[in-house]
Design goal:
Number of strands: 32
CATH topology of one domain: GMP Synthetase, Chain A, domain 3
Radius of gyration: 24 Å
CATH architecture of one domain: 2-Layer Sandwich
Shape: globular
CATH class of one domain: Alpha Beta
Helix content: 25-40%
Strand content: 15-25%
Oligomer: single chain
Bound molecules: coenzyme A, adenosine monophosphate
Distance between the termini: 59 Å
């Protein structure tokens, strides 16, 4: 169907449009109420429908006669392992693990934290939770104990499911010491800690008392059936960075999400059932949830779990090897991964080694994709590279192209057009809609379509203040954007304290809290500066306390260590510079954008609100010294 017509229907006749899409998935009870509102007047989808996500991903395909189709491919160059699981085999493992969770007393509505690397057992744990209505919270394996503690204290899990270790290229990252530390620091006790022992090395000294062995639990348990849950039952919580130090627990529903993912696979990715689809993201991010697990499995696609990096495992040809070996038709990754490959293999020599004849489309998201990277991709890979834009909050793309329509047209540097269901506008500060080519705030008229966030876990006030209070009746995305006369939208970047480092969303406020806790630091500003490879990296400008005797080198070293210890190595704060003063407005607000512009070496206008212009010169000199 013509994309413009589909979009128009989704906005002008929403209920009929989404009722029709909901019929594309199997419900235990089909909803009578297509759209309703919660007690705070926030829209909800299909509230009286009943279904089960694990059933849709696994059991349904077995009932339809596809039990022996490969559901999951695990490819781990870092451990030299490869394995496939059919839908039948996946069901066996998932239902027994779900039975194990039930035997431990977990039930519908409880929460479980999953802190695991890129192995099949992570996906099994997610689906086992979904099977019995347990709300999962996957925590990215690269986060430090403090991040785990924040999540444990906020969602109070009955179980923590983990593994003995992750692997970063050739470095083993033991998880159990991190888990032990987190458990010690958390205010709330976790009843059960389940560990998948990867047996990579003799790890007896890392084990601590009371751990439950994942494999023993699976082997000793009876399979559990799928329980019926309400459409609005939370499938998972996924914490993401906001404008304060504390991450926000985004709540995802079940029925709206399943409908939206089925719609995405069919129309946005334009993929047929049975084909192989690969989203090379960690399970710990939104992409990992929606397009490494739930989306492809709902659509009966084979999904790939890749444990490695785009480069060095063993080389920058890994992506092309996987695409060729498993006949991947559609792939999804972050531009930073392509930039890393391009840097290692500028002439595309490694690409030539592989047969990419099954490869049809490359999707990109997570950060802006620069044109040079698109050029490289087009020259050496030769399949369309399609940028699309979304957030943890939406759970599925909000801007993009409907590639099921063969007439789709890519406009370079644009993240596409609004996806059906998303009534996107560009507003100025005062709430006036801007004309084409004017930069403003990207906002979305409520109701958001099915699949988008239900709220923030345990914090309705923050939900409203973060997203709904800026423009009444609209969702505030936190991104700036420009629309052209053809309706294509160009994302210009975050307008808040969130930065994107190598496709990882991080909060500069959280880093500022850590830096400020240094005993010699009086105040600081952490900003995201441009980086050729990672897109952005954080940079700290710090003011020392009067009389402090610490050297610049010492304070920089301390700050780097503290951020690494608290957030994790992914935060990638590697630079801190001591300044005499921070530039501020007359009302005392730090001019972070000015600091960022100075560090990026870009042209700037002196803000009219600045308290003392001389600080600009001071900082400029300091930057020159620091860089020298
Ligand atoms: N566990 C432990 N540590 C981890 C980790 C994990 N799961 N993931 C990253 N790290 C560590 C790295 O080892 C590195 O540590 P180091 O500073 O001691 O070397 C640090 O965190 C920074 O990692 P990263 O930014 O990932 O850099 P990299 O050089 O290891 O890899 C890329 C660069 C581009 C290959 C990688 O960042 C990537 O694939 N990004 C895509 C992210 C993505 O898919 N996002 C989802 C949105 S689509
Ligand atoms: P996350 O919630 O981790 O998915 O990060 C969401 C943020 O990543 C968005 O608010 C954007 O700032 C950025 N982002 C995601 N996709 C794109 C894209 N295609 N182009 C530019 N920025 C993007």
């Amino acid at each position: 169907m013509d994309t413009d017509i589909l979009f128009k229907q989704s906005i002008e006749d929403k209920e009929n449009f989404w009722e029709k899409q909901a019929k594309e998935i199997q419900w235990f009870t089909f909803p009578q109420q297509i759209i309703s509102h919660d007690k705070n007047e926030y829209p909800q989808w299909f509230s009286d429908g009943q279904l089960n996500m694990c059933y849709l991903c696994i059991d349904k395909h077995i009932e339809d006669g596809f039990g022996d189709q490969t559901a999951i491919i695990y490819d781990s160059p870092v451990t030299n392992q490869k394995r496939t699981y059919t839908f039948d085999q996946a069901k066996e493992e998932i239902s027994k693990f779900a039975g194990g969770l039930v035997s431990l007393g977990l039930k519908k509505g409880d929460t479980a934290v999953i802190y695991m690397p890129m192995i099949p057992q992570t996906l099994f744990a997610m689906l086992a939770c979904a099977r019995i209505g347990v709300i999962h919270n996957v925590v990215f394996g690269g986060f430090a104990p403090h991040e785990l503690v924040v999540r444990i204290d906020d969602c109070k899990p009955k179980a923590l499911i983990t593994a003995t270790a992750g692997i970063e290229i050739a470095r083993r990252i033991p998880y159990l010491p991190l888990v032990e530390k987190a458990i010690e620091l958390a205010q709330d006790k976790v009843d059960h800690i389940i560990v998948y022992n990867r047996k990579l090395v003799d790890n007896r000294n890392e084990m601590f008392e009371g751990l439950i062995d994942y494999e023993e639990l699976v082997q000793s348990s009876e399979p559990a059936d799928c329980v019926s849950v309400k459409s609005t039952h939370p499938l998972y919580l996924l914490y993401t960075s906001g404008t304060t130090g504390k991450p926000k627990g985004i709540v995802r529903d079940t029925g709206g999400y399943a409908t939206a993912l089925k719609f995405s696979m069919k129309y946005i990715y334009g993929i047929e059932q049975g084909e192989t689809y690969w989203a090379a993201s960690d399970f710990g991010w939104a992409v990992g949830h929606s397009f490494s697990v739930y989306g492809p499995l709902i659509n009966r696609n084979t999904t790939i779990i890749f444990e490695g990096k785009p480069i060095m495992t063993p080389d920058a040809g890994t992506f092309w090897r996987i695409i060729s070996e498993y006949k991947v038709s559609t792939m999804f990754t972050a531009p930073t991964a392509i930039r890393a490959i391009k840097k290692e293999d500028p002439n595309g020599e490694l690409v030539k080694k592989y047969d990419l004849s099954h490869f049809k489309k490359q999707f990109l998201a997570g950060e802006r994709c620069d044109v040079a990277t698109l050029d490289w991709f087009e020259e050496h890979i030769g399949v369309p590279a399609i940028d699309h834009w979304w957030q943890t909050e939406s759970g599925w793309p909000m801007l993009g192209l409907m590639t099921s329509d063969s007439n789709y047209k890519i406009k370079r540097a644009s993240a596409g057009k609004p996806i059906p269901g998303y009534d996107i506008k560009i507003f100025d500060e005062n709430g006036y809609e801007l004309d084409a080519h004017q930069e403003g705030y990207l906002i979305i008229k409520l109701p958001l379509p099915p699949g988008a966030l239900l709220g923030i876990w345990n914090d309705n006030e923050r939900f409203h203040s973060s997203y709904l209070s800026q423009y009444k009746g609209y969702y505030f995305s936190g991104d700036g954007a420009i629309q052209d006369e053809d309706g294509y939208i160009f994302i210009t970047g975050r307008v808040d304290d969130v930065i994107n480092v190598a496709g990882h969303r991080l909060s500069t406020s959280e880093m500022e809290e850590i830096v400020s806790s240094h005993p010699d630091v009086a105040e600081c500003a952490v900003v995201g500066i441009d980086d050729e490879l990672k897109g952005q990296i954080p940079f700290a400008a710090v003011v020392l306390k009067n009389g402090s005797a610490i050297t610049e080198q010492e304070v920089e070293k301390d700050i780097i260590r503290m951020v690494r210890e608290k957030i994790g190595a992914v935060a990638f704060l590697k630079n801190a510079m001591v300044v005499k003063r921070l530039p501020k407005t007359r009302s005392g607000k730090t001019l972070r954008k000015l600091i960022r512009t100075l560090l990026d070496g870009k042209d700037f206008q002196i803000p009219s609100t600045i308290y003392d212009e001389k600080i600009i010169e001071e900082i400029q000199e300091k930057i020159n010294d620091y860089r020298a």
